[in-house]
Amino acid sequence: MKKHTLLAWAAALLLTLSLAAGCGQQNRAGNTKSNGAAARDYQRIVVLSDLHYPSKTSEKKADKRNAKKQRKEAAMKEIAQWPDVDLAAFTGDMVELSPSDKEIALVRGLIDTLPQPKAFVTGNHEMAYSPTRRREDGRLLQGTQQEKEDNLKRFEKAFGPLYYTKDLGRYLLVFLSVNRTDTRETTEYDAKELAWLRDTLAKNRHKPTLVFSHPPLRYTWYAPEREKWDKSRLYANPSETLDAILKENPQVLLWVSGHTHTPPDNPTFATAANYYKGLDGTWNHAVLDIYNPTWDGKKTIWTNSLYLYKDHIQVRTYNHETHQWMTQFDRTVTVPENL
Fold first, then answer.
1. Distance from C-alpha of 155 to C-alpha of 37, rounded to nearest angstrom
2. C-beta separation of 216 from 242 below 8 A
3. pLDDT at res. 2
4. CB atoms within 10 A of CB 219
5. Judging by beta carbons within 10 Å of its beta carbon (0-12, 13-18, 19+), is residue 115 exposed, middle or buried?
6. 3-class SS string, 52-103
7. Which residues pair with 45 in a beta bridge?
8. C-alpha separations of 230 from 151, 254, 279, 331 in Å
9. pLDDT for 97
10. Which among 99, 147, 214, 292 could bridge 49 via Cys, Cβ 3.0 to 4.6 Å?
């Protein structure tokens, strides 16, 4: 009897140790399961960019279009199950093509399946195009100034303010929307938003800051492609004004962008050239532009996650097809000691 009791006690002890070890194991998204943020030493942001839901692929190609739609829904379901996500940041171009009530309702239905807190900014597809008119060949038409203004009102009703801040841990998060309606430029911020940005950053000089924007900063792409990519529709404008604002505010550590649909197999996705050092390259500090892929690619959906620790930020890229981290793209940004 004593032998059996001893064996039973040993088995129970082994089971307890096994369960304890299992509590620290990682799920397939690489996150340590816990009972909430209080048990972690970081906050996590998942970036979702250029969803173009259901798909920019024509309805004439029904199989291809439906496959993309299903991949997006599966990826969203996977993110919804990640237990340590503090914020899902959407960096624009969520709608399929233009901001009609129908397209907004469709993508809002997908987004609302996420239980985590969310933040949004406009992309050119939410702001710049007519929600009702098309060219004879079916391609998009730029909206009139009135249509663009109406687009922005429609966005605010569905997704919230155009520009604003959030606090996450010790970090300041700044969200910018392309919103200038009196020009054919589709990646521009108006003067009021830029004045707000300058004032907001000036008031938070000692707080490490991340900026979320649809277009990337100019000259943050793979260096040999500099001339090919140097088109105003591809980067945030007015670039000279943004350059001056960022030069004044070295607390801005990351610029998190979409728009270019850049996948991990593109040399611009993760390169030393992503560090913005001013238009003339003479700054003594740098802002890392994090490029985020479209969800409407040929086969795979990827997302970047930003892990905000007290003294550094870790950037990681996740493959939603293989359900694995792409560790070759892991990057770390150190928070300066004066922040």
1. 31
2. no
3. 42
4. 20
5. exposed
6. CECCCCCCCCHHHHHHHHHHHHHHHHHHHCCCCCCEEEECCCCECCCCCHHH
7. 87, 306
8. 27, 21, 12, 25
9. 96
10. 292
Asked whether the beta carbons of 292 and 257 are under 8 A apart, the reply is: yes
**Which pLDDT score, from 0 to 100, does residue 228 have?**
85
Q: Quick one: three-class SS letters along the chain? A: CHHHHHHHHHHHHHHHHHHHHHHCCECCCCCECCCCHHHCCCEEEEEECCCCECCCCCCCCHHHHHHHHHHHHHHHHHHHCCCCCCEEEECCCCECCCCCHHHHHHHHHHHCCCCCCEEECCCHHHHCEEEEEECCCCCEEECCHHHHHHHHHHHHHHHCCCCEEEEECCEEEEECCCCCCCCCCCCECCHHHHHHHHHHHHCCCCCCEEEECCCCCCCCCCHHHHHHHCCHHHCCECHHHHHHHHHCCCCEEEEEECCCCCCCCCCCCCCHHHEECCCCCCCCCCEEEEECCCCCCCCCCEEEEEEECCCEEEEEEEECCCCEECHHHCEEEECCCCC
Q: Which residues of the chain have pLDDT under 70?
A: 1-38
CA distance 143 to 129: 5
CA angle 67, 73, 74 (to 5 degrees): 90
